[in-house]
Amino acid sequence: MNIEETIFGQYQEMTYHKIILENDHQVSIEVTDLGARIVGFNVPLASGEMVNIVEGHQDAKEVFDLHSYYLGATVGRVAGRIADGQFSLNGETVYLDQNEGKNHLHGGEISIDLDQWNYTIGEDDESVFVTFEWTDPDGRNGYPGNVTFKVTHRLTNNNAWIIDYDVETDKETIVNPTNHVYFNLNANHETILNHQLQIQASRYMPVDDSGLPINEEGKDVTNSIFDLRNGRLLTDIINSDDEQIKAKGGLDHPFILDDNQAPSLSLSQPDNKLAVDIYTTAPSVIIYTMNGNDPNDRERQPHQAIAIETQFLPNAMNFSNVPEELIINPGKAFHSRTVYQLNDENI
């Protein structure tokens, strides 16, 4: 196994770094201290060709120029949308940055995904890893508390990419981090319409025009295009006549994961027999099929990749029953883990 450090580029007189973690099977991941994000997941195919199965930025400048994608970024403090940019904590209303119309999205306009994180590298018998650390200051984007994030990206010798999120605070607050990774398993990075997606979820969340869940309970997937328990091709989903799909131009929806189902999700490309099985401690996942592209982006097209965001439900801090895991205080930390396991007999 091997660890390499290099320069990811410069932006506004700041120099950012890239860390490459490689195992004994020529599988590697590339992560950067700019937002503790993944920019590469390199896999050797049976043909001998090396393919990067995630959409990642080439350098630091591109991250800032094409920020709207959040490609591969650690997103927080709270991933997803918060209605009207506010929530209640201990009987008081907390007002947040309203950076998407009247709503709050992904922690605010300038948040931890654009910060330069500190990092340490390490290796054990079965993996190589890098731990990123950043303390988000009290009051930033409206959030209370100095909140310290530790995000560990780990590559194992059995070809698993593992993310551990550990979050602490000096004042009661809320957190709901995720990684906004986008996958494309095609060697030529054509659209993901030929991919198959399987999700062990009996319920999904219909969303309104702004992307917020319509209700707190979700909807049974039975007899709908959202029933992915046995897998469906993305082309069949994206081109379906379902009103929710048509309104969004594809998937942009939360799924409530079934308990005791492992893996929780599987994404595969039947032609090259490459697949990723995803295991997570998070209770839900947001699936986004890149239904549009940034107007400044001349390379990517709609449905170029699929984002898989493991987290708690969007706007959950405004539900009648707020998940207790979202609220942390000086004596109670947050932890979550997601495993992306390569499933390729040729590696």
Automatic annotation (TrEMBL):
Pathway(s) the chain acts in: Carbohydrate metabolism; hexose metabolism
Gene3D superfamilies membership: 2.70.98.10
GO terms for cellular component: cytoplasm
GO biological process, one term: glucose metabolic process
PROSITE patterns in the record: ALDOSE_1_EPIMERASE
GO molecular function terms listed in the Swiss-Prot or TrEMBL record: aldose 1-epimerase activity; carbohydrate binding
Binding site for beta-D-galactose: H180, V181, Y182, D252
Name of protein: Aldose 1-epimerase
Organism: Aerococcus suis
